[in-house]
Structures are given as C-alpha cells and as structure tokens.
C-alpha cells in the first residue's frame, strides 16, 4: 500500500445531482446551503468509475474486521476482512455497479455476493450487494 501521507484523495463523482446542487455546477455555493458541485461530490447518485479510484473501507481501514474495496482503472478488488474468514474477490466496476469474476475463499463461509450497485451519499460509498447486504465505505486514504 502506498504511503498514506503521499496519496491524493480523489473527488467523488456521481451521475446524479449533488446535495443542494444541480448537474451543471460551477462549484460555487448555492441558495440551499450546499455546493453546486455538478454531481462531483453530491449524494444519491450512482458512482462513476473515475470517482471511485483508490481505497475504500467500511471502518477506518485499521480494524481486522473492516472490508476493503480497491478500484483501479475499472478493476475492483474486494477483501471481506483480514481475519481468517476474509474472502478476496476480483472483478470490474462500471458507473454505478461492480461485478466479481472470481473469489478466493478463506475460512469456512464463502462470500456469496457477486455483484452490487454503487451509490454515493455525501462522502460515503453505499454498496448494495446482490444478496441484500448493504455496506457503507469511506475513502480514508
């Protein structure tokens, strides 16, 4: 993993409008108290591949129970956790979704979700897995 102090935080991009903003924003404050971001950091929109680049964690990224999603040029790697039961899956991301091509099982219980929808709500990535599980991730580093 790169040195955390040297990593740049990517801007979240969505295909929907920002909170209190519209889809053609100029970054200036708007009348609703939000920022007219043109959907770059807004909530409720599906996440774009470019806006997801980097590391995302269910916690702060330091606990062994945190799940991790890593997005790199349209590829995605999921680590369930770093405990003995933590499966690892690989696949691809598109705007608003991800699909796994393969998973490696570690422990006794196999990770069963092979796809998910991706939405941005503020600075949080909401992942709704095809098995009904919903996780919230933040781009900590």
Structure description:
There is one protein chain. With 141 residues, this protein is mainly beta. It folds into two domains: 12-42, no CATH class; 44-141, Lipocalin. It has one helix and nine strands. The chain has one helix at residues 49-52; strands spanning 45-46, 54-57, 68-72, 75-79, 88-94, 97-104, 115-121, 124-129, 134-138. Residues 1-42 have low confidence and may be disordered.
Indicate the CATH topology of the largest domain. Lipocalin
| Number of strand segments | 9
Structural class: mainly beta
* Unreliable runs: 1-42
Determine the fraction of residues in helical runs and give it as a percent range. Answer: under 10%
**String of helices and strands:** EHEEEEEEEE
Query: What is the terminal-to-terminal distance?
Result: 10 Å
What is the average of the pLDDT values? Answer: 76
* Main sheet properties: 9 strands, antiparallel
How many individual domains? 2
The number of distinct helices, counting runs of at least 4 residues, comes to: 1
Strand content: 25-35%
CATH class of the largest domain: Mainly Beta
Described by the principal axes of the CA atoms, the overall outline is globular
What is the CA-based Rg, rounded?
16 Å
* Annotated CATH architecture of the largest domain: Beta Barrel
How are the secondary structure elements laid out?
Blueprint: E1 45-46, H1 49-52, E2 54-57, E3 68-72, E4 75-79, E5 88-94, E6 97-104, E7 115-121, E8 124-129, E9 134-138
Antiparallel strand pairs: 1-7, 2-3, 3-4, 4-5, 5-6, 6-7, 7-8, 8-9
């Amino acid at each position: 993993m790169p040195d955390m102090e040297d990593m740049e935080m990517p801007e979240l991009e969505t295909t929907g409008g920002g909170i209190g903003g519209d889809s053609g924003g100029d970054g200036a404050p708007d009348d609703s108290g939000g920022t007219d971001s043109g959907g770059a950091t807004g909530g409720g929109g599906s996440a774009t591949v470019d806006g997801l680049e980097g590391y995302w964690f269910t916690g702060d990224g330091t606990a062994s129970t945190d799940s991790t999603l890593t997005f790199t040029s349209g590829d995605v790697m999921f680590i369930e956790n770093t405990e003995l039961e933590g499966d690892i899956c690989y696949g691809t991301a598109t705007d608003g979704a991800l699909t796994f091509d393969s998973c490696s099982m570690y422990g006794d219980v196999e990770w069963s979700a092979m796809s998910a929808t991706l939405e941005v709500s503020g600075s949080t990535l909401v992942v709704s897995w095809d098995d009904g599980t919903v996780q919230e991730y933040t781009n900590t580093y």
